[in-house]
Amino acid sequence: MLAVFVSVPPDADANQRREFTHYLAQRMRPVIRALMLVAVFGYVAGTAASALVAASTVPLWLRLLPMLPLLLVAACSGRAQRPWQLSVLTLSCVLLLEIGSNLNGFGRLQGLPWVMPGTLLIPVASAAIWLARWDFIAGMVLCALGPMPMLLLGDADYAQVFPYLVYLVIAIALASVLRAFMARTQFEHFRLERQLREQASTDGLTGLLRRNRFLELARLALDEARRQQQPACMLYLDADRFKQLNDSHGHAAGDAALVALAAALRAQTRQSDLIGRIGGEEFGLLLPGLDLAQASQRAERLRVAMHEVRRPDGPLTVSIGVAARSTPDEPLESLLARADKAMRQAKADGRDRIVCA
User: Are 83 and 132 in contact (CB under 8 A)?
Assistant: First the structure.
């Protein structure tokens, strides 16, 4: 039974769950806002219809009063950026609707018929828009407890409370099933989109970023470093005598060397670093927050670590060019070109070495 409250499969890791919640918030924001506007219209129409059908001890202006905060909540939902903000606004909408239902139900004979539509409609209508388990449970609790003041303090026949509870159980069970189905479907769609993005952004052989994606993320990282007034350095690596390896031992040996090189790069870098495959055997590393001296030390550790990678003709060696951002506004293309030039100088000086631009 607990499976109906699980928005993502249990095999999803914490990062996937967090990314899925943000993904769902972005996709569902227009739907949530539209449903809130429909709720405002429905509430006004229902209140007007109830005023025509039967008199109430509660003034009409007081029964229409929840319309104003409902409109405000709907307007705020279009600007909410974080999932928890959308969840709070959605819960606020449900709470206001329940308050309005109570205002319309007080002072009427046989108050239960006024409760039934909301009892079924609100949980089912909102089943697909909850972003997490906590807000779904809180929403169902509001739906269950919301009409209680009207039932217990109004003119409802207490013998009718039992049918209300039956309808309530049916509505929440239906909402739970709908939410479980929608959440699983949306998560599979999210996972497929994520796989397609990764395939488009990463190199199939090494698993590193493709050139275009690397350049795109590097520009963003440089902009952030400029805002934070931090230095940034670029490393340009090239595997030495790689064509000779392919010609002598075949492309399979070359591919194996590239895979091992990529693994060594990942093992020596921080989470904030960016690694991309620029060309066939050329790789770029952006090191935000490091100056030239620190980047040179990192480059030396990388150069030494590559000796642990064995090729059929001996250890793998790399030539590395290092360039520090000369000014806070230096474009990525200029930084990459200077690192590339330094790498070519390392090649000319004998390979398996580091040259700083």
Answer: yes
